[in-house]
Specification:
It contains 2 helices and 5 strands, in the order βαβββαβ. By secondary structure, it is mainly β. It has one domain: SH3 type barrels. It has a 5-stranded antiparallel beta sheet.
Length: 71
């Protein structure tokens, strides 16, 4: 499922990423565990936590990141 479909405080593992070089530098890569910190209303950005870092992603990019929800 796309990352943008997750709700606040849901945990997931990234299974598929678009080919954007910056994502790897931010710690967003296949196999990384991510937690949704906040999701803005009306198609706004989503903020995810990767390790100790919070990263804001546009909806269009978050829709391209495929994840698997974990407990």
């Amino acid at each position: 499922m796309p990352l943008y479909q997750l709700k606040n405080n849901q945990h997931c593992v990234i299974e598929q990423m678009p080919d954007h070089g910056l994502m790897d530098c931010l710690g967003l890569r296949c196999g990384a565990q991510v937690r949704v910190s906040t999701k803005q209303a009306f198609g706004g950005p989503i903020v995810v936590r990767v390790g100790t870092r919070n990263i804001a992603l546009a909806k269009t990019l978050a829709d391209e990141i495929m994840v698997r929800v974990v407990n």
